[in-house]
Each structure stands twice: as structure tokens, then as C-alpha cells.
Amino acid sequence: MAQTIGRHALVAGACTAFTTTAQAAPLTLPGIGTIDIPAVPAVPSLGDPAAPAPAGTPDTLAPPPAGTTPEQRALTYAESKIGAPYVWGATGPDTFDCSGLMQWAYQQAGVDIPRTSQAQETAGDPVALDALRPGDLVFFSNGEHVGMYTGDGNVIHAPTSGDHVKSTPVGAMPANAARRY
Asked: Are 106 and 181 a contacting pair, CB within 8 Å?
């Protein structure tokens, strides 16, 4: 809807273009012109019961295989959030800070852990840095930052403002402690 006020136009509403193929599509906006919309993947209709739920939410994760440990389940949930934005103080499910991601992942696995990285570093069982297992929490900068060990020398973590949840080599930051829950 557009309404002219004086010499200015007020536009209310949203323009959304969906395409059912991966071809580019032009979108014509009256009074503005034509905009080329780049190729996008097919989008199911909103009422389509076969449409998949957004990836990475707990509802859409396959249940962990029988016999998996809480650490393995927490790791599965943490991995599902790779790419989620970092927001200071956020505890999920869509945005996280470092300790919020760890707490959220473990909660999904049925384990309550403390909220802050400093509290997480003093709970659980201490683990030597040369004895890490997937799911262990690794602490950096004297407990100011935390990530979850994934194996193969990497951790999943929510680094800092303007960044996103990602996997990084443990050695990229000086690790000072680890805990197992």
C-alpha cells in the first residue's frame, strides 16, 4: 500500500518475492522500477504440510542414536547452531553468547549446567587438555570464553559481537582449562 503525503510517498507492508525454481526473477514495483531478484532455491508454499521446518532447531534434529552420552547429544545440538549470530547475553535458541550456547546445548541433552563461562569452569569434572573428548567444554582467557570440543582438535563456540557460531581449532586461542559434564 502506498500513500502520497505531500511530495513524499509512505509505503506500508512488505514486498516478498518467491520463486518455485532456482531461476532469477524480475520484480516490478510501481513508481520505482524493476529489480532483478537473484536465483533462489525453491520455496514451498506456506501451507504445504510437506514443507520442512527450519534446519537446526531441536524439533527438527533427529533423535540421537540409542546409547549416546549426554556429551554426544549436547555436541549434536551445538553443531546444529553453527552459523547462528553471536549476541552478548543470549541463551538461544536463535542467538547465543559463548556460555549461552554451551548451556543451551546441554539443556537440550537433558543436563543443567551453569549460565556463565566462569561458573561453567568451576562445575563439572576437570579434564586435562590432552585428554579431551567430544562434548567437553574448553575454557580460554582464564574462563572469559568457552567452547565445546568436537574432536580432531576443534571447538564450536560463539566468538564475539558481529560474528557467528563456528568451529575453530583449539590452538587458535590459548586454552587454560576443560570440564566434562
From this structure: yes
Which are the catalytic amino acids?
Answer: 98, 145, 157
Compute the distance between CA of residue 104 and CA of residue 97 in angstroms, rounded to an integer: 10
3-state secondary structure 72-132: HHHHHHHHCCCCCEECCCCECCCCECHHHHHHHHHHHCCCCCCCCHHHHHHCCEECCHHHC
Residue with cell 516490478: 28
Per-residue pLDDT tens over the stretch 61-99: 556 666 689 999 999 999 999 999 999 999 999 999 999
Neighbouring residues of 136: CB distance < 8 A, sequence distance ≥ 6: 71, 127, 148, 149, 178, 179, 180
Tell me how far the alpha carbon of residue 40 is from its chain's centroid: 22
Please count the other Cβ atoms lying within 10 Å of the Cβ belonging to residue 155. Answer: 27
What domains can you pick out in the chain, each with its CATH number? 68-180 (3.90.1720.10)
How many angstroms separate the CA atoms of 51 and 41, rounded?
A: 13
pLDDT in tens, 136-170: 999 999 999 999 999 999 999 999 999 999 999 99
Phi/psi of residue 121, each to 5°? -70, -20
